Amino acid sequence: MCGIVGFTGGKQAAPVILDGLTKLEYRGYDSAGVAVSDKDGTIDIVKAKGKLKVLGDLTDGGKKLKGLCGIGHTRWATHGEPSENNAHPHCNDEKTIVAVHNGIIENFTPLKEKLMRRGYTFYSETDTEVATKLVDYYYKKYGEPLRAISEFALHVRGSYALAVLFKDYPGKIFAIRKDSPMVIGYTDGGAYLASDVPAILKYTRNIYYTDNHDIVLLSEKGVTFYNLDREEIKKDATVISWDAEAAEKGGWEHFMLKEIHEQPEVVKNTVNYFLHDGKLDLSELNLSEEYLKDIGSIIITGCGSAYHVGVVAQYVLEDLARIPVRVEIASEFRYRKPVLSGKELVIVISQSGETADSLAALREMKQNGVKTLAIVNVLGSSIAREADSVFYTKAGPEISVATTKAYSAQLIAMYLIALKLAKVRGAVAGEYYATLKKELTLLPEKIEKTLALKEEVQKFASQMMDKKDVFFIGRGIDYAVSIESSLKLKEISYIHSEAYAAGELKHGTISLIEDGTLVLGILTQKNLIEKTVSNLVETASRGAYVAVLASEKAEGIPEKFERIFRIPETDEHFFASLAVIAMQLFAYYLSVLRGNDVDKPRNLAKSVTVE
Ligand code: F6R
C-alpha cells in the first residue's frame, strides 16, 4: 500500500529510485512518480498513471532525470482517483518543496480549509498535496525545514511516512514517519530511505528502523535523526541477515509459487529456532512460567489470513492447553468495548506488523492495561515494537500479496505457544508432549510431501477453471482451513467462494448448491470425518461436484465423490499446516490458468496501513 523510496549520494538518483520502487510493487499501486533535484536544488517531477513501466519509459529508466538526490512513490489511491494529477510527488506552487507520502492524513479537510483561508489553492484531490502545502506554510513561517516538519507533525492527525525535498537544501532529504513504515539505509556512497527493506537491500544491509515522530535528515554524508524538539537523537542500525535474493523471484514464475515452495524451509527455521535438542525454549518472549500459568484467557486478533491463523489456534490452544480462547477480527475488535478482567493475554498476529487495524487493536488493549504478545514477521515493524513481547516468525521477506509462507510460520508460532502453555499449566501428559514436539520437527518433510501433489492439483485446477462458485467445508480445524482456502481462492482467482462450517450449510446456504457447484470438503479431523462426509453427501445429492482433501488414513469417504486428494498423516492439531498447502496450490494454479496477475491481485495491497 503506497511505497516510498529516496536516495541522495554519489550517483544518479532516479534509476536507484525506480529500481527500489519495483521492489515495492508487491505493496499494490495504481500510479507512480519521481522527483529529482539537481546541484542548485531545482526539482524535476515526472508522474504517470499505471504501472512503473510507464514511468520507466517516460524517463528512460530514470536516466533522463539528472540529479543525485530524489524521492519516488507508488500510489494506492485513497483520496482521489488513480490519475497522473493525483499521483505523488506533490509540490507547492513554486515547486520549491516537493513531497511523497504514505498513509492517511485524517484531518486533511480542516487543514485544507485553513490553508485556503491563507490563500493556498489545490490542484489535486489528495491529502498529500495538503501535507506538502502545510510543510510549505510552516517553512515560510519559520524559515527552517526541521521546524517545518515538526510543526507538520504537531498539526496533522493520521498516519504518514513523509519525505520532502526543499530547493533551498540541495542534496538533502527530510523525512518523518508516524504509523506508516519507513526504513533508512546508509553506505559510504549515500543514504537511502524506503517503505520496506527489499527496496534498498541491493545497496546496503545497514538499516535503521525509525520510530514514530523520528525526523530524519539524509545527505550524501550520512543520516541524522532528530526528535520533534529538533534535538539530535542516536539510533542503532540493524544489519540485515537475509540477502536481496530472498526478495527476488530466483527463477520461479511467481513470488507466490516460490513462497509456497519455501514453506518446508520456513517451518523448519521457525521450529528449530525455538525447539532444540527436544527442548522448547520461548525465553525470547520474556513471558515467565509463573505468568503463563496465571493467564485467565487468551484473545487472538488479526486481519485476513492472520485472523484465520487465530481460528486454527483457538482449537489447538483450547484443546492442548485447556485455556479459554477468543478470536477477534481486529477491525471489529478495536471498536468493541470488551469486558476485560486484566488477566487476558492478547495475541496480535501480523506478517507485516503494520496493519492499521491490528495495530489499533493492540494499542486499545495496551491502554486497557492488558498484556500483549505480537506474532510478527517483519523485524522492527510497528506492532513488533509496541507489543509487550514479540514472537518473530522466520519466514523471510514475503513479497506475494497473497500470504502463504507467513501464514505457515504463524501457525507454527501458535503451536509452539500452545505447547508451552500446555506444559506449564500441566494440561498435557509428558509422553504426549514429547510426541507433539517430535511431530513438529517432522512437519517440514510432510509439507514437502504435500507439495508433491502439485501436478495432480494443477490438473484438477484446469478442470475447475470455469466454476463460478466454490464452497469449502469442514469442521473444527478443517473449518479453519476452509476459511483460509476460500480467501486464497477469491483473492487471486477472482472466483466467488464461500467457506462454511460443514454443519451450518443446511441452515440456509445449501440453497445455493446447483448442478456442478464445486464443493471441497476437508477431512483431517478423525472424529469429525463422518459428520462432514454426511454434509458432503447432502450437497452431492443436490448436484454438487464434490472433491475432498483427506489425510492418508481417513476412512469412510464414499467412492462416489469425484476426487480425493490425500495428504500425509500428522497429529490432529497440526493438520492445518498440511491441508493449507494443497489449497494454496489450487488457488495459485486457478489464478494462473485464468491469466490473473497472481502476485499483485487487483485492488489489493500487501500491507494494509489504512483502516
Ligand atoms: C491474504 C492476506 C491478507 C493478510 C492481512 C493481514 O492472503 O495476505 O489477508 O493476511 O491483510 O496482513 P498482516 O499479516 O500483514 O497483518
Folded structure, characterized:
The protein is globular. Helix 9 runs parallel beside helix 13, helix 9 packs antiparallel against helix 16 and helix 14 runs parallel beside helix 18. The mean pLDDT is 94. The protein has 611 residues and is an alpha/beta fold. It contains 18 helices and 27 strands. The chain has an eight-stranded antiparallel sheet, with helices on one face. The structure holds fructose -6-phosphate (F6R).
Helix and strand composition category: alpha/beta
How widely separated are the two ends?
12 Å
Name the hetero compounds present. Answer: fructose -6-phosphate
What's the tally of helices? 18
Task: Going across the biggest sheet, name each strand in turn.
Answer: 3-2-4-1-10-9-11-15
> What is the radius of gyration?
25 Å
Helix content: 25-40%
Low-confidence residue ranges = none
Number of strands: 27
Mean pLDDT: 94
**Main β-sheet, in a few words?**
8 strands, antiparallel
Which outline best applies? globular
| Proportion in β-strands | 15-25%
Which SSEs are present, and which pair or pack?
Blueprint: E1 3-9, H1 13-23, E2 31-37, E3 43-49, H2 52-58, E4 69-75, E5 90-91, E6 97-105, H3 108-117, H4 127-142, H5 145-155, E7 158-166, E8 173-178, E9 183-187, E10 190-194, E11 206-209, E12 215-219, E13 222-226, E14 232-233, E15 238-239, H6 255-261, H7 263-274, E16 275-276, E17 279-280, H8 289-294, E18 297-302, H9 304-321, E19 325-329, H10 330-333, E20 344-350, H11 356-367, E21 371-376, H12 382-386, E22 389-392, H13 405-424, H14 430-451, H15 454-464, E23 469-474, H16 477-493, E24 496-501, E25 518-523, H17 529-541, E26 545-551, E27 563-567, H18 576-593
Parallel strand pairs: 18-19, 18-20, 20-21, 21-22, 23-24, 23-25, 25-26, 26-27
Antiparallel strand pairs: 1-4, 1-10, 2-3, 2-4, 5-6, 6-7, 7-8, 8-12, 9-10, 9-11, 11-15, 12-13, 13-14, 16-17
Helix pairs in contact: 3-4, 4-5, 7-13, 7-14, 9-13, 9-16, 13-14, 14-18, 15-18, 16-18
The structure holds fructose -6-phosphate.
